[in-house]
Amino acid sequence: MSGVEYPKEILESLEDYNIDIRDFIPGHGKGAKLLLDFNKISGVEQVDGVILKGREIENGIVADIVIKEGTKIEEPVHLCFGVNKETGVQEIFPRIIAEDNTEVIIQAHCSFPKANGLIHKMFGHFYIGKNCNFTYRETHYHGENSGALVAPVAYMYVGENSIFENNFNLTRGTPGKVKIMIDIYAMKNSVIKSNIRAFGKCKKDSVRIRDSVFLEGENARSVIKMKAAARDGGEVLMYGITEGNAPNCNGHVECNEIVLGKGSICRARPFIRAIDPTSSVSHEASLGRFPQKWLDELKAKGLTEEEATQVLIEAMLQEE
Amino acid sequence: MILEVQNLTVPTMDQKCVILNNISFMVKEGTIHAVIGPNGSGKSTLAYTIMGLANYKPSHGKIVFDGNDITDMSITERAKLGITLAWQEPARIDGLSILKYLSLGIKGKTKTKEKVIESLKIVNLEPEKYMERKIDESLSGGERKRVELAATIAMRPRLIMLDEPDSGLDFIVIEDFLNIFEKIKELDMTILLITHREDIGMIADYGTLIWRGDSLLTDEFPKVMLKYCAKAGLKEFCKRKLFNGEGACFDEDYIDRIFREEQGL
User: Fold this and answer.
1) Is B189 exposed, middle or buried (0-12, 13-18, 19+ CB in 10 A)?
2) Quick count: other Cβ atoms within 10 Å of Cβ A160?
3) Average pLDDT of span A221-228
4) A66 vs A28, residue with greater confidence
5) What are the boundaries of each domain within chain A?
6) I need a labelling partner for B261 at 20 to 30 A (CA). Which of A69, B200, B251, B253 fits?
């Protein structure tokens, strides 16, 4: 794949997320990778045990990613869906299969540094087999103009005894209009951790995220943590949904949202449901400002109220 | 004197009661000065008022730090002058690393990491093991308190207020904490130590006894402790535990006299 060119604006836009961009510059870094430059596949690099195939369609691609049975890889599989244009439509159809007994981290970057009327859609299907340890990290950067419309939808099946960690991060730049829907189906003894972070920074930013976990298997467990901040007229709405549909399953939803400046709105709507008498599902939500004691403790270190608030926002939205 | 508290009266938020009533005392620079008194006597309120917390505004009196009247200053302004507070129950904040937390109060941008490492070493935390950890629930109570101490040390303030630094700690680490306080003193920082425990207070050079919102005595610490015992009627405790045997500060006759005076005999 060496010699393949990729827009440096997209690579540079991810530096703020503490991502080592050398890992996915074509021809450099270890690990499998698939790079998309708008709707053109720039490069594909495979490693043993990982099949990566992309097919271009009218407004995007279909990408098939298969982690072969028993494969355990330390280096993340990088998926870079960049658009270095102001406008256009990019549609991604990823189909990700982790066969039984696999361990993998998939790191997806969606970067649209010049977005100003750009539409990005994703329809993803994830199938995670038995006894897997699967981490999916999706990091977004939509530029500084609130000019993107981003609407990813993902359906995820997590097999028996598997651990699935989902991390979605939209904290740099201005998000624009974002509508995200994630459905995770958890089978017997599986463990789901889903962490969502978003920051709406101005009036044109509207972020709506629905993260659902359906505990379908006995002893399945889940924790959804949704953290958001809205500033200067930005709007964030988070639905954290958990259903306990199997014996002895256990789920928890946590929403923490901070409102800064007039006109900003944060809303949290945890929905929980239990239909098995041995299941346990809980939620907690806090909206508004940071506890005064936290601010005072930082101010006693010499920080102003604004500086203390900024430190707390960065900490809250920090990727775990 | 680095700190002068002059006739300080602090009411409750609804202004209906008085928590501290006309308190006065002075703290000498470079010393450990303990503020002792029973639970509910207003010790923590005193620390919060000196730090300038919003809900602890004096209705009367002055706080003077190094010759400057700081009574109306904000917390940030006081911290920048060199005052800080280590809270009794410091916050646990997800996502905030110990390295970042300790860096916040360090003046200047150079050698920040070195200063953090040095501060962690003073409180006996291994820097390589702790710097990247978060100040969240994964830290034990003792670890969090050590991190808080390190954060205040990293600031190199002139006055550190330690609010019940021993609370929640088991006795085997108390000795270690006392050694840390000595190290802080050697760094030319003054400590205002809020405590209700005599074994913690005994490290202090001076002390002030707060009793039901009043400051009853400021003097060398043993004398203040004796007064505290006399007020509480703990004569046997006083003789047995504090001032008996090797290192005794007072003879029995003196102790008896103080107790008689307290009882108006």
Assistant:
1) buried
2) 18
3) 95
4) A66
5) 8-294, 295-320
6) B200
